[in-house]
Amino acid sequence: MDIASLRAQVAQAKAQLDLVREKEASATLKAPLDGLITKVHFSKGEQVSLAAPVISMLGKDSLEIEVDIPEADITKVEMGDKADITLDAFGDDVIFGSKVVSIEPAETLIQGVIYYKVKVAFEKKTGGIKSGMTANVDIKTDEKENVLFIPQKAIQEKNGEKLVKILKGEESEERKVVLGLRGDEGMIEVISGLKEGDRVITFVKIR
Q1: What CATH architecture applies to the domain 64-139?
Q2: What is the pTM of this model?
Q3: How far apart are the C-alpha atoms of 164 and 124, rounded to whole Å?
Q4: Residues 6+ apart with CB under 8 A from 144
C-alpha cells in the first residue's frame, strides 16, 4: 500500500471540499441582522448587478429615518442628539423620541444643493409604525428657555456688524445686535442690543 499516494489523494479531496464550501458560502446571501423580507427584486435565472438590490428587508430592531440636512445646518448636528418625530399617520399630537445614530461624511447633491444624510432611530419600539410612512423630524441641536428672539429677515449686515431697525415713534432707529441660536420658523435669538417690547422693522412698505 502506497501511504504517500493515499495521503496525496486525501489532501486533494480536502482541497476540493474546501473549494466547494467556499463556492457555497459565496452563493449564500446572509443578512447583517434579524428581520423580515419585504420584497425579492429578482427571480431565478435573472441577471443581477452590483448597483441593484436583490432583496429588501426590515430589521426587527428599532426603525430608522433618513433625513437630508443642508450644509448650513450640518455642523450643528452631532451623534446622540435628541430628536422628536411625528408621523402623519398618527397626527401631530403623538411625538416619538429618537436620537441621531449616523451622520454621513460625504455630501449628497439634490437639485444642485448640497445636503448630508443623517439617520435617527426611534428610542422605543412602537407598534403600528410601518416602512414608508411620512415623517417630520425635529433635531434638537441646542435648547434655551426665556430668550429674546426676532425674525431673521429683520437682520441687516453693514461693515461686518449685525444691525436691526426698530420703530421709535414715527422714525426708525438702527441698533447693533449680538445674535445667538437660530431657531425654527425663521427666528433667531438676540443676546444683546434689543429689549422686550422693542418694535422691530421687518420690511418697509413703499407708497
Answers
A1: Beta Barrel (2.40)
A2: 0.56
A3: 44
A4: 180, 181, 189
User: Which of 22, 31, 35 lies closest to 61, judged by CA?
Assistant: 35
pLDDT for the residue numbered 62:
67
What are the cell numbers at 95? Answer: 411625538
User: Could you read off the pLDDT of 41-94 as tens digits, one per residue?
Assistant: 888 888 888 778 888 877 766 688 999 999 988 998 999 999 999 999 999 899
The answer for 87, left when phi > 0, alpha when psi is -120 to 50, beta otherwise, is: beta
Residues forming a β-bridge with 151: 187
| Nearest to 141, CA basis, from 190, 97, 96, 81 | 81
In three-state secondary structure terms, 127 is coil
Contacts from 182-186 at CB under 8 Å and sequence distance 24+?
A: 182/152, 183/149, 184/138, 186/151, 186/152, 186/153
For 116-141, the pLDDT digits (tens) are: 999 999 988 777 888 888 999 999 88
CATH architecture of 142-206: Beta Barrel (2.40)
The two beta strands, 187-192 and 149-151, are: antiparallel
* Residue 58 grid coordinates: 426590515
Give the model's pLDDT for residue 207: 58
Q: Is 49 helix (H, G, I), strand (E, B) or coil?
A: coil
**Could you tell me where in the chain the CATH 2.40.30.170 domains are found?**
64-139
Q: How many residues does the chain have?
A: 207
| 118 close to 139: Cβ distance less than 8 angstroms | yes
